[in-house]
């Protein structure tokens, strides 16, 4: 394998509390800093509102280029909410509004000139529940390129995307069959392939494995590792071992109750995954990853 | 105490048999079944009521004459039984109605389901359904006294007769818009939101998402809506009787006065055709034909839906 990365084994979880000074998640070319050197997203002071309710308050973080960033935290702490800001998916929810700043390659993602449709073309998303269109496997993949007016041989685009998503061998003989005839894990890989087919820059994944069995999960994790050579990936997960296995950096969110008794999602700690899981600096992070909170 | 107690607590000693009969359940089931039977019985009753006079009709008039001639005039002397003029008029008016109602109804449904804010939808949908409740006699007079005169002023070269297929067809179309719109909107609203999000996440616009994802996923419901609308259009009586007229000369030109099958039935039925007369039996023969046409269309389109629909779960 020529993968430069040495994933933390699942047993890394067991080492929590033990300080391991030289755990290297990536090869030496990536420095050990909290700030990604080559950020795709730079988030500062991000707050997200649903109507009057401030669901997430004051998030600062950076997403490094071709890294896998994991977002973890208890249910309702605003992980999906933050994730959906990265491709302006929240625009589609009436009353949802983001304050603060998200820079995408140094361009204000919420600037007046920005077209959310163009944003979503560059920043793809995979959802918790596999949501293939009720069309053929082929048409599912071809949908994105078609609506984006991509020229070129569609057959090749479809094959390439399915190959990258490690699904081609399983479906090449039934490419015209309805996508819903696939298994859940295959459907989710199809959704990943569908996202890849429009050649995005970033892929956002919101609990992509939560509906899948361990084998399908492993396949998707392998796929994420593979894809992170070409793509920047942000993944929300409830599975801490998954975050530990696949990600370079981890953001831990939790919900805090303010003076008026209202709950807001907060970013507690954002660091290299190895640090978060071996030597977290915040007590709440430690409690959460050791299962004392949650 | 403890052994007995434990046994009860774990439920092991209690029988699983029903402890008392549930008469309510039985009654409810019987009442519901009765209600279902009423509609089935009505349909069967209609078929039988149509059948006997229809068979008698074809004892006097040959199928060859019925389908082989284009002169229609069962109430004339001597009568003529070539049914084509009223079939063609029915098809023409239905076609005009569909051409009006499908684009407008679908557009309204897409607007309501995909674009309108919840508030607009809450106002708009009931208004649409009120339109469905307008008595058709109102549409008929509107066609006769407003639409046709307007068309004659604006397009004199069409040479519309005072009663004509076009004016009637347009208003039949307006009448069935709510059916198309409301039922299509229901099935579009039932499309899971995940499909829309999947489409938006790929950089599709709202319009593309509506047309390429939502409408295909709601296709079977939309087709069902259109079929129901066609059936209503083909059977519509009041509008065509008032605005289309009763002249049953074979014509393909919608600017002419024309009588549809339903209009003929109304005309003959409100006249003094005595029971057992040939005019009386003709009413039933035409009724059977209309029934068969609607039924066949329903059947064919149901098969079509089976074949082309996109099932989403
Ligand atoms: N569409 C919405 N309208 C109003 N409030 C919302 C909406 N979506 C989320 N919220 C609220 O925002 C908060 C954060 O929700 P979010 O879905 O981001 O949490 P999450 O961390 O992804 O949780 P989970 O792990 O359960 O998916 C919650 O309090 C939730 O009730
Ligand atoms: Mg979530």
UniProtKB/TrEMBL annotation, chain A:
A Pfam family matched in the record: ABC_tran
UniProt key word Mitochondrion: no
Matches recorded under Gene3D superfamilies: P-loop containing nucleotide triphosphate hydrolases
Keywords carried by this UniProt record: ATP-binding, Nucleotide-binding, Translocase, Transport
GO-annotated molecular function: ATP binding; ATP hydrolysis activity; phosphate transmembrane transporter activity
SUPFAM superfamilies on file: P-loop containing nucleoside triphosphate hydrolases
BP term (GO), one: phosphate ion transmembrane transport
Source organism superkingdom: Bacteria
GO cellular component annotations of the record: membrane
InterPro entries membership: AAA+_ATPase, ABC_transporter-like_ATP-bd, ABC_transporter-like_CS, P-loop_NTPase, PstB-like
ABC transporter domain residues: 34-280
NCBIfam families membership: 3a0107s01c2
Name of the protein in question: Phosphate import ATP-binding protein PstB
Biological source species: Planobispora rosea
TrEMBL record, chain B:
Residues annotated as domain ABC transmembrane type-1: 87-301
Entry GO terms, CC: plasma membrane
GO biological process entries: phosphate ion transport
Record keywords: Cell membrane, Membrane, Phosphate transport, Transmembrane, Transmembrane helix, Transport
Transmembrane residue ranges: 26-51, 83-111, 123-146, 166-183, 213-231, 278-300
Subcellular location: Cell membrane; Membrane
PROSITE patterns: ABC_TM1 (PS50928)
InterPro entries cross-referenced by the UniProt entry: MetI-like, MetI-like_sf, Phosphate_PstC
A GO molecular function held by the record: phosphate transmembrane transporter activity
Membrane topology category: Multi-pass membrane protein
Domain of life: Bacteria
PANTHER family linked: PHOSPHATE TRANSPORT SYSTEM PERMEASE (PTHR42727:SF1), PHOSPHATE TRANSPORT SYSTEM PERMEASE PROTEIN (PTHR42727)
Assigned protein family: Belongs to the binding-protein-dependent transport system permease family. CysTW subfamily.
Function recorded in the entry: Part of the binding-protein-dependent transport system for phosphate; probably responsible for the translocation of the substrate across the membrane.
Protein name: Phosphate transport system permease protein
Organism in which the protein naturally occurs: Planobispora rosea
